[in-house]
């Protein structure tokens, strides 16, 4: 039973940590996109007023596009991490095996229930 608990706990913890970290990266990248959008708007306004250069505008646009790509990568990473977590539970016999492990370790059962209720 100890091996069962340890294996279940480590796998669940690793998969859950991947989902949690990916979710945090989405929030960080969303903030980065907002900042890049503001920077681009300011740079575009400066360019329209004749104060800024085309190079500054192109650089701001490049930064905005890179921020958007990074955001989409974070979303992709989150979806992959979530799919891996769901796959772990969907493997033939995995649920029954893991449920037995969860029964012998109530904290793991509560963690799993919480994860399911949170939808990720």
Can you characterise this structure?
The chain is an all-alpha fold. It has a single domain, classed as Arfaptin homology (AH) domain/BAR domain (Substrate Binding Domain Of Dnak, Chain:A, Domain 2, Up-down Bundle). 89% of the residues lie in helices and 0% in strands. It is built from 4 helices and no strands. It has helices at 2-48, 54-90, 94-103, 106-118. Helix 1 runs antiparallel to helix 2 (54-90) and helix 3 (94-103) packs across helix 4. The longest helix is centred in the first third of the chain and has 47 residues, at 2-48. The radius of gyration is 22 Å and the shape is rod-shaped.
Mean pLDDT: 80
Fourth CATH level, the homologous superfamily = Arfaptin homology (AH) domain/BAR domain
Structural Rg: 22 Å
The CA-CA distance between the termini, in Å, is 27 Å
Helical segment count: 4
Q: What is the helix/strand order?
A: HHHH
Please name the CATH topology.
Answer: Substrate Binding Domain Of Dnak, Chain:A, Domain 2
What would CATH call the class? Answer: Mainly Alpha
Count of spatially separate domains:
1
Identify the quaternary structure here.
single chain
Percent in helix: over 70%
Judged by helices, strands and strand pairing, the structural class is: mainly alpha
Low-pLDDT stretches = 102-110
List keywords for this structure.
single chain; 120 residues; mainly alpha; Substrate Binding Domain Of Dnak, Chain:A, Domain 2; rod-shaped
């Amino acid at each position: 039973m100890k091996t069962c608990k340890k294996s279940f706990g480590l796998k669940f913890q690793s998969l859950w940590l991947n989902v949690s970290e990916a979710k945090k990266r989405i929030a960080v990248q969303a903030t980065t996109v907002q900042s890049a959008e503001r920077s681009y708007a300011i740079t575009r306004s400066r360019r329209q007023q004749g104060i800024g250069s085309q190079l500054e505008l192109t650089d701001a646009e490049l930064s905005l596009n890179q921020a958007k790509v990074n955001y989409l990568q974070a979303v992709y990473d989150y979806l992959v991490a979530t799919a891996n977590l769901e796959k772990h539970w969907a493997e033939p016999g995995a649920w029954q095996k893991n449920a037995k492990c969860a029964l012998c370790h109530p904290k793991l059962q509560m963690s799993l229930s919480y994860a399911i209720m949170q939808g990720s």
